[in-house]
Structure formats: structure tokens, C-alpha cells
């Protein structure tokens, strides 16, 4: 029996089934309130686990072609596995203050690790990387359209809640904003990856207005509108931070196409945000940002104006938690159980999350669990910027741009919110980290030769 050709291996039924199942999981993750429920977390881990087992069996039987990204991604896999091992130690050794929450954190962590492995090994060709990014764009567009429709129409929606700001299928508008920031980055990266540097023709103008790029631009507009309509200060600010930081590096590095790239990025800011978003709540978002007050205004010993934001107080009360066990942490997922012991009388609301992912990871995981996660993200950024820095491939540079922008936007948003505690957002963030590696180590698709 002759060995299978690369083309036959690539198109095996099991291979296509696992790719489709992974994409379905990614689109479905935000639907049950960002999968921020115990049953949703269990279902996500079960589906990812089954998919990973099927891939492992197929790989053992030689059904799949080895991904070029697997070996470069191994150090990142090791960091994720080390963190899950530490969480298991916390749980089994009674080092945690909430064993149930730590067990759930371990389940989520295993799911994220398997998801990273699956994306690295299944989406290793240019066509599949494009399909993966396109799926994230479609998912973000559906969330944006659904959330915007409910807000503008006044319907209560699936969750039975009316809100002046857009939340999509998430409970919190900041969670939707964080998700849209990542899917927007994926769309912008795809737009840059597919850009054409050849001379202008009228045929290309028609294709630009009616072809796939036009649909992609429309999707970006819809997501930007929804992002503005969330009125999320952190979400909108972090989106612009990611776009500006990565955009500056991208434009400065690509000297040959500097003008063309500058126009593409400028159009995203000027047309999508400054013009279109004026009609969908940009002024209200600006007023909300300007009216933010982090501390009380005190005159002659009297409080004349209370702070409009108490997250800063939560940060200050949570810091002693991290300092109490800086190496081993309080236990993954245990913030809700231990924070009331440290919060002051001025914190009257119930806080199950720290509203700052860095503080929460420091409190729960300690240095032993947090340092590997930080190294994982830094390695992802290394691969993303490496793809941007190379000049031999427009596609690789564009994909690297999208991954870097999404990662930086999430890192900026993590200073004021808890997106990485929401399974749908954390899983999408892991996918962007995998895409950063794939931007450098994917294969070009081979065209099937006609039989003679």
C-alpha cells in the first residue's frame, strides 16, 4: 500500500471534521453568557477534550501531517502545562482557600491548553489560518449585530435584560468589548494580510467594492459600531492602544508600502470611528470617560463629590491578598472566598472578581503560577512581532499584526477588567497566541495537480 500524499492527508474526513468542530466550539463559546457558567465550562472542556483525543488517535495512526508550528510552540505548551500542574498541586495539597473554585480553574486551564494544541496542529496551512481568522470575524460580527439590534430596538433578548449599552450574549458590556477588541484585531489582520500591492486597475476597484474585502470592511464597521455602543471605557481605550502601538511598528517597518498601509489604518480610525460611530453613541462614550472620577473630592474635610469608580479601592484592598502569599497564592479561583476578609467598610458591593486580571492572577496563582503565564504571553508577542518585522511575505505580516494587536489590546484591558476570567474571552485570547506562532510557521497550500 502506497503512503498517502500530502494532499490526501490534508483532506482526510477526520481532519476536516476536527477543524469544523474546533471552529464551531469557538463560535459557540460566547453564546451562553460568555460560557461563564459551570455547565458551560464543563461542556467546553468536554468538547475540546473529545476533539483532542480524536486528533491524538489520528496523529498516532499517521492520518495528519505534522504542523511546522508544533516544535516552535512547545515552550509555550510547557508554560501552560506547568501552570495547570501548579493549580493541581494547589487543589490536591489543600493550598487553596476554595477547593471547588480551584478544581473549576483546573478544568478551564486544561481546556485552554488543549485548545492551543489543537489550533497549532490543525490550522497549519495558509488556507486554514485564513479560515480561522474569518471564523473569529464572523463570530464577532454576529455578536455585534445581535447586541446592537437589541440596544437599538429595545428588545430584552435572550437574557431578559434591557440595557442602554450593548452586551451581546455576555452579561457585562466590558466582556463584549473585550471580545470585540480581539475579533476586530483578527479582522484588521486579515484585511492587511490580503492586501494587494500591485498597480491600481478599475477591475480591482470593482472587486474592492463588491468582493470579499468589501464584506470584511463591512464586518469591521459593524463591530466598531457595537464596540462604541458598549460604552466600555476600558474596551474602547484598549482597542485604540492595540491599534496605535502595533500600527506604528507596522508602518515604520514596511517602508515600501508605508503610504498604502497608513491609508488603510487611517481609514479604520477616521471613517469607522470618527464618522460612523458619531451616530451610535460616540459622544456618550466620551462623556462617560470624561466624567470618571477615581477618588472623592474633599473640601474642608467634607466630601463634596463621591468617586464614580470604586475599582481603585478594590485594587488597594486586594494587594495585601497577593502580598500575603506571593509565591504560592491563595488558590486559583479563590478570590471571591478570600476578598471579603480584606475589604474595608467602604466596599459595600459584592466583588467575586478583582476587576484587574494581573492582581487576580497574583492573588490566586502566586508567582509559581503567574510567571509561566506571563512567559507564555511574551513568547506569543515575540512570534507576532517577528512576523510583522519580516518583509518577505505580506500575508505573514498581516497575520502577525492581527495577533499582536489583539494580544496587546487584551493586556491593556486587563488592567481595569476581568476578561481573562471569562471563558469565551480567555479561549479567544489563547487562539490569538496560537495564531501568532502560526503567522511564522504555516505552510502555503499546494495546488492539486491534474491527473494525466
The rounded distance between the terminal residues' Cα atoms is 21 Å
Q: SS-based structural class?
A: mainly alpha
Order of helices and strands: HHHHHHHHHHHHEEHHHHH
Mean pLDDT: 83
Supply the number of structural domains: 1
Q: Indicate the low-confidence ranges by residue numbers.
A: 1-9, 292-298, 303-308
Q: Looking at the structure, what is the overall shape?
A: globular
Strand content: under 5%
Fraction of residues in helices? Answer: 55-70%
Enumerate how many helices there are, as a single number: 17
Number of strands: 2
Largest sheet: 2 strands, antiparallel
Main-sheet strand order equals 1-2
The radius of gyration over CA amounts to 23 Å
Give a short synopsis of this structure.
It contains 17 helices and 2 strands. With 452 residues, it is mostly helical. The chain has one domain.
Question: Any overview of this molecule?
Answer:
The structure is a single chain. The chain has 452 residues and is an all-alpha fold. The chain has one domain. It is 67% helix and 2% strand. It has 17 helices and two strands. A two-stranded antiparallel ribbon has the order 1-2. The longest helix is centred in the C-terminal third of the chain and has 33 residues, at 357-389. It is globular, with a radius of gyration of 23 Å. The two termini are 21 Å apart.
Distinctive features:
452 residues, mainly alpha, two-stranded antiparallel sheet, 2 strands, 2% strand, disordered N terminus
Write the layout of secondary structure elements.
Layout: H1 6-10, H2 13-28, H3 38-60, H4 70-92, H5 99-122, H6 126-153, H7 173-193, H8 202-210, H9 212-229, H10 233-253, H11 258-275, H12 282-290, E1 297-299, E2 302-305, H13 311-324, H14 335-338, H15 357-389, H16 394-413, H17 423-441
Antiparallel strand pairs: 1-2
Amino acid at each position: 500500500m502506497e503512503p498517502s500524499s500530502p494532499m490526501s492527508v490534508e483532506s482526510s474526513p477526520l481532519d476536516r471534521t476536527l477543524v469544523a468542530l474546533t471552529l464551531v466550539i469557538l463560535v459557540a463559546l460566547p453564546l451562553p453568557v460568555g460560557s461563564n457558567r459551570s455547565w458551560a465550562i464543563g461542556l467546553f472542556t468536554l468538547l475540546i477534550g473529545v476533539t483532542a483525543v480524536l486528533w491524538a488517535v489520528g496523529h498516532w495512526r499517521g492520518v495528519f501531517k505534522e504542523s511546522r508550528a508544533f516544535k516552535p510552540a512547545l515552550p509555550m505548551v510547557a508554560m501552560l502545562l506547568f501552570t495547570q500542574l501548579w493549580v493541581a498541586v494547589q487543589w490536591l495539597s489543600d493550598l487553596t482557600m476554595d477547593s471547588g473554585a480551584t478544581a473549576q480553574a483546573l478544568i478551564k486551564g486544561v481546556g485552554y491548553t488543549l485548545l492551543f494544541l489543537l489550533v497549532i496542529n490543525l490550522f497549519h496551512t495558509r488556507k486554514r489560518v485564513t479560515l480561522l481568522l474569518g471564523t473569529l470575524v464572523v463570530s464577532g460580527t454576529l455578536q455585534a449585530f445581535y447586541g446592537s439590534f437589541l440596544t437599538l430596538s429595545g428588545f430584552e433578548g435572550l437574557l431578559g435584560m434591557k440595557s442602554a449599552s450593548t452586551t451581546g450574549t455576555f452579561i457585562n458590556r466590558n466582556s463584549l468589548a473585550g471580545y470585540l477588541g480581539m475579533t476586530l484585531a483578527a479582522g484588521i489582520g486579515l484585511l492587511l494580510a490580503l492586501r494587494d500591492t500591485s498597480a491600481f486597475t478599475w477591475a480591482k476597484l470593482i472587486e474592492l467594492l463588491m468582493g470579499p474585502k468589501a464584506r470584511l470592511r463591512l464586518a469591521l464597521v459593524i463591530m466598531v459600531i457595537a464596540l462604541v455602543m458598549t460604552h466600555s471605557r476600558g474596551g474602547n481605550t484598549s482597542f485604540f492602544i492595540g491599534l496605535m502601538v502595533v500600527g506604528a511598528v507596522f508602518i515604520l517597518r514596511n517602508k515600501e508600502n508605508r503610504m498604502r498601509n497608513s491609508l488603510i489604518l487611517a481609514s479604520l480610525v477616521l471613517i469607522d470611528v470618527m464618522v460612523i460611530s458619531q451616530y451610535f453613541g460616540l459622544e456618550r462614550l466620551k462623556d462617560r470617560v470624561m466624567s470618571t472620577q477615581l477618588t472623592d473630592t474633599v473640601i474642608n474635610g467634607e466630601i463634596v463629590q463621591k468617586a464614580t469608580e470604586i475599582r481603585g479601592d478594590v485594587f488597594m484592598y486586594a494587594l495585601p491578598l497577593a502580598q500575603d502569599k506571593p509565591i504560592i497564592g491563595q488558590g486559583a479561583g479563590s478570590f471571591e472566598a478570600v476578598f471579603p476578609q480584606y475589604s474595608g467598610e467602604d466596599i459595600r458591593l459584592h466583588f467575586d472578581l478583582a476587576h484587574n486580571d494581573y492582581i487576580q492572577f497574583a492573588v490566586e496563582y502566586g508567582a509559581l503560577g503567574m510567571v509561566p503565564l506571563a512567559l507564555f504571553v511574551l513568547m506569543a508577542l515575540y512570534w507576532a512581532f517577528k512576523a510583522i518585522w519580516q518583509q518577505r511575505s505580506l500575508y505573514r505580516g498581516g497575520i502577525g499584526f492581527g495577533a499582536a494587536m489583539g494580544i496587546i489590546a487584551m493586556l491593556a484591558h486587563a488592567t481595569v477588567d476581568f476578561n481573562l476570567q471569562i471563558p469565551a474571552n480567555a479561549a479567544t485570547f489563547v487562539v490569538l497566541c496560537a495564531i501568532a506562532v502560526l503567522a511564522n510557521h504555516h505552510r502555503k497550500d499546494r495546488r492539486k495537480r491534474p491527473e494525466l
